[in-house]
Automatic annotation (TrEMBL):
One of its GO terms (molecular function) is ATP binding. Keywords: ATP-binding, Nucleotide-binding, Transport. It comes from Rhodanobacter hydrolyticus. InterPro entries: AAA+_ATPase, ABC_transporter-like_ATP-bd, ABC_transpr_CbiO/EcfA_su, Metal_Ion_Import_ABC, P-loop_NTPase. SMART domains: AAA. This is ATP-binding cassette domain-containing protein.
Length: 270
């Protein structure tokens, strides 16, 4: 066995172009995120954030490069069984939340524990072990939503459902979590409380990839930012270099003033 194994990067994207309809949604994007490197992906509406999430989630594919090498590698591999990948990289997106809160009724604990079968709910052939039960319960406790067991997913508030879906992703003890607009639809107090939960997750060793429109949601634990604009990586690096009025002004095509309060950043339109 290798006594000093090198951890592969969480994500390597090398010159990836993704077309959607007539639009180049990602344009020769290159990005490398090391394991443990909490990162925010920030950009205006239409900048390519959701496309990037779907590229990482294997729901969209890049144009094939001329050398035949896949431009996307997750944990060092370019081929993944999607269920296996979800165990290492949990993904919670608005599309997933829509899927879990509409259509067929689904109880909260079933929604979480069914993740072990890569299913949306439980079926007769699913045998839940005690270990699965414990991990599902522990994840619900960690996200402070165990009191919701017994409720239907469709009956939960936006914030409650999101916490349950993060618990579902966490039940696998993934190495990383990709959260697409996790604060959307939360009121001011819920957002702050939710961000504290994310801080605790980041500190507990789960690498966070946070996709957002809002500078205010970049928790102090996140040190690196990718700014997207029109499918291009406009700027990438530490917060001091990326969260500037100049860079954000360019990303959002507006004059923007950035202020810093402790380890938090705020942006206002001038
Ligand atoms: N199904 C589609 N067909 C054609 N164009 C699309 C499709 N989905 C997205 N696009 C285009 O791709 C570009 C990137 O869209 P994407 O949804 O990735 O942006 P985003 O940064 O996630 O935006 P938002 O913040 O509004 O969710 C946009 O110009 C969008 O119009």
């Amino acid at each position: 066995m290798d006594a000093n194994p090198v951890t592969p990067p969480l994500l390597e994207i090398d010159n990836a172009t993704v077309l959607r309809g007539n639009c180049t949604a990602l344009d020769r994007l290159s990005l490398r995120i090391e394991a443990g490197q909490h990162t925010a992906i920030l950009g205006a509406n239409g900048s390519g954030k959701s496309t990037l999430v779907q590229l990482i989630a294997r729901q969209l594919y890049p144009l094939a490069p001329s050398d035949g090498r896949s431009p996307v590698r997750v944990f060092g591999r370019d081929r993944w069984n999607v269920a296996e990948l979800r165990g290492l990289l949990g993904i919670v997106s608005p599309a997933l939340q829509r899927d879990y809160t509409t259509d067929t009724p689904l109880e909260v604990f079933d929604a979480v524990v069914s993740s072990f079968f890569a299913a949306r709910g439980l079926w007769l052939d699913h045998e839940i072990t005690e270990a699965m039960r414990e991990r599902a319960n522990a994840a619900l406790v960690q996200l402070e939503v165990s009191h919701l067991i017994g409720r239907e997913m469709a009956s939960l508030s936006t914030g409650e459902a999101r916490r349950v879906l993060i618990a579902r992703a966490l039940a696998h003890r993934p190495r990383a979590l990709l959260l697409d607009e996790p604060c959307a639809g939360l009121d001011l107090a819920s957002r702050r409380h939710f961000l504290e939960t994310l801080r605790a997750l980041a500190r507990s060793g789960t690498t966070l990839l946070l996709v957002t429109h809002h500078v205010e949601e970049i928790i102090p634990e996140i040190e690196r930012v990718l700014l997207l604009k029109n499918g291009l990586a406009l700027r990438e690096g530490g917060k001091a270099a990326t969260l500037t009025g100049e860079a954000l002004g360019e990303a959002f095509a507006m004059p923007i003033r950035v202020t810093q309060h402790g380890d938090w950043y705020h942006a206002t339109v001038q």
